[in-house]
Amino acid sequence: MVCFCFLVDQKRVVRRSKPLAGTCSRCGGGASVADMRTATRFCYVPLYWKSWKAVVCTFCGAILKSYR
Ligand SMILES: [Zn+2]
């Protein structure tokens, strides 16, 4: 019997961030530029990492803008 595991998830990690002039459109909190890393995992085993940049809210964590 073959058992397939379709447990794929993505984990988002903020590697570093620095404050940015601007506010969040959702909560009014401070925005910051962050180096993000997204890990795509299959059965909790990381398959690949993707690095990207985004402007995120430091208060609610909303992604206000993303760069590729
Ligand atoms: Zn916010």
From TrEMBL:
Protein name, per record: Zinc-ribbon 15 domain-containing protein
